[in-house]
């Protein structure tokens, strides 16, 4: 297998936190909650994020998972109960039952719709309820800065040595001292092969064929992802802090704006399913779900590069049941268990041993595991420091006009 290297910035390159966005949402029978968005903005802008953003949606599969993200279940006392706060794509009935049978510990899983929902609840006192959370890469960095995560005793968590090279020392958490990488993915384009005259291979196709695709394309409702795709197309980093490069991306997006149907992270799925859309900017988990159920569709990681994201498992400092939390992590990342769970949910793994146990058709799926030459051009959404204000200003102009 290739080493899955992709570019990114180390923490030493910037002292401020990263500000990416995102969301995920398989569109099938399960209702999914959204994810991957954080902007260090004014309070008004942050309120707008909470009201309007629908990031990567994930579905509830187990009866024990609560879907009300505003009022999670109250904690139960005792060593035989573990409260988990997660994206529901990572929880299903088989995983919960297997853990309880293996350890005798009952799991109560509440789900959230974005990293920011999780963060807000933790900051509002919810941290005293949960012993396990599933923050995305940039949120791990933020929670470390806020001193919200326990430093992990790596002797109690097997498999660190089995992580693929890219996840051995990630920039969001050097040495994985506060988190365990669990799964990862990309951001790209989903298109309908019957509605598009020739295959889409890069972001530039949206501009070059905007007359053909007019009002039949959507972009994510996410400033960093949308600006990032324009930056990558222009040959810049998706996390540039250069005002001239950011302005150039904004001007390119202005050219495309009249052809855009909507900025949406979630709503494109139903439109795509009935043939109202030809192309959608999407996260790999959404795109792959759509493609697996509809052979007319194709997911592509653009040739000029895209965003790569990672989701992790972590223990809050205020966890009421740390011992059970370690048992959950150990059980979840054990290669046989992880392969069964990720195989069912069709998610990639950062663990070499788990990778060897995944079904061959998943490992050989280039949507799940893009070839090295594509990943070499991909980047994490890194910290942009004070330049976030520039991104926000252009995003407001782009989406409000």
From TrEMBL:
Keywords: Periplasm, Signal, Transport. PANTHER family: SPERMIDINE/PUTRESCINE-BINDING PERIPLASMIC PROTEIN, SPERMIDINE_PUTRESCINE-BINDING PERIPLASMIC PROTEIN. Residues 1-31 are annotated as: Disordered. The keyword Transport applies. The keyword Signal applies. GO terms for biological process: polyamine transport. It holds the Pfam family SBP_bac_8. This is Spermidine/putrescine ABC transporter substrate-binding protein. One of its GO terms (molecular function) is polyamine binding. It comes from the Bacteria. InterPro entries: SBP, Sperm_putr-bd.
């Amino acid at each position: 297998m290739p080493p899955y290297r992709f570019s990114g910035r180390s923490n030493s390159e910037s002292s401020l936190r990263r500000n990416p966005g995102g969301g995920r949402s398989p569109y099938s029978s399960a209702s999914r909650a959204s994810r991957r968005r954080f902007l260090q903005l004014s309070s008004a802008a942050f309120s707008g994020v909470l009201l309007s953003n629908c990031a990567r949606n994930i579905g509830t599969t187990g009866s024990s998972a609560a879907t009300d993200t505003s009022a999670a279940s109250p904690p139960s006392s005792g060593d035989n109960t573990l409260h988990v706060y997660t994206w529901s794509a990572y929880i299903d009935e088989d995983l919960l039952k297997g853990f309880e049978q293996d350890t005798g510990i009952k799991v109560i899983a509440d789900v959230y719709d974005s990293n920011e929902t999780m963060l807000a609840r933790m900051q509002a006192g919810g941290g005293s309820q949960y012993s396990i959370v599933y923050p995305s890469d940039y949120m791990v960095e933020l929670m470390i800065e806020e001193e919200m995560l326990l430093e992990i005793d790596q002797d109690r968590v097997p498999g660190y040595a089995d992580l693929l090279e890219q996840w051995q020392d990630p920039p969001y958490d050097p040495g994985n001292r506060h988190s365990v990488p669990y799964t990862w993915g990309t951001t790209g384009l989903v298109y309908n092969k019957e509605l598009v005259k020739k295959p889409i291979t890069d972001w530039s196709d949206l501009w070059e064929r905007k007359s053909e695709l007019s009002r039949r394309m959507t972009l994510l409702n996410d400033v960093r992802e949308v600006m990032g795709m324009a930056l990558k197309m222009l040959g810049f980093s998706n996390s540039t802090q250069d005002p001239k490069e950011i302005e150039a991306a904004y001007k390119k997006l202005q050219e495309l704006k009249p052809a855009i149907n909507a900025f949406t992270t979630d709503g494109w799925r139903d439109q795509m399913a009935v043939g109202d859309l030809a192309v959608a900017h999407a996260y790999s988990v959404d795109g792959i779900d759509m493609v697996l159920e509809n052979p007319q569709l194709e997911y592509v990681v653009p040739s000029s590069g895209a965003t790569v994201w990672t989701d992790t498992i972590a223990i809050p400092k205020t966890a009421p049941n740390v011992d059970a939390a370690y048992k959950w992590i150990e059980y979840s990342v054990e290669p046989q268990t992880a392969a069964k769970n990720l195989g069912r949910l069709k998610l990639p793994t950062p663990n070499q041993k788990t990778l060897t146990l995944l079904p061959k058709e998943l490992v050989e799926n280039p949507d799940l595991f893009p070839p090295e030459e594509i990943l070499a051009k991909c980047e994490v959404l890194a910290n942009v420091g004070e330049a976030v204000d520039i991104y926000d200003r252009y995003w407001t102009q782009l989406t409000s006009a």
